[in-house]
Write a structure and sequence with these properties.
Length: 153
């Protein structure tokens, strides 16, 4: 399974690590910038955001799964505690289960060795979700391409 921090202190330390989201976006009024250069700069920033978005949603799904499972074990058994937790964070039930499904798919692909952590970054969020929903043969074909470094969109 995916390596999870042993303590809340470890998790907090991971979350406090700075993430470089300081992009140099081109000036839209600078006519000296070639169109191809402009497009490359914007596309790079977009891909980084897409990757962060996917990783964030996978982690949110894992968090939601843990909260849900904890409530099943020690809660009222009807899921009311989980639903209240979602409500307090303004998360819809269907959104929560979509994120949990995304996390489950990521964890399955990772634990089965079909995909490395680094290769996840080669997917757009939409492409990853679609790959996770597809037949095993399609998953294998797409994940092999991602493992080779191809961008999957």
């Amino acid at each position: 399974m995916v390596q999870v921090p042993d303590s809340t202190a470890e998790l907090a330390a991971l979350l406090n690590e700075p993430m470089d989201l300081d992009f140099q976006l081109p000036d839209p009024e600078d006519e000296e910038i070639q169109e191809t250069d402009f497009d490359q700069l914007v596309d790079h920033a977009w891909r980084v955001c897409d990757r962060v978005d996917l990783q964030t949603d996978i982690w949110r799904g894992r968090i939601l799964r843990v909260v849900r499972d904890r409530e099943k074990k020690g809660g009222e058994g009807r899921g009311a505690g989980f639903l209240n937790w979602l409500k307090s964070r303004e998360i819809g039930k269907s959104q929560a289960y979509s994120l949990i499904e995304l996390a489950n798919s990521a964890d399955t692909l990772l634990t089965e060795g079909q995909l490395s952590h680094d290769a996840i970054n080669n997917f757009s969020k939409r492409a990853f979700v679609e790959t996770a929903k597809s037949a095993p043969e399609v998953q294998q074909m797409v994940t092999e391409r991602a493992q080779k470094g191809d961008r999957i969109t």
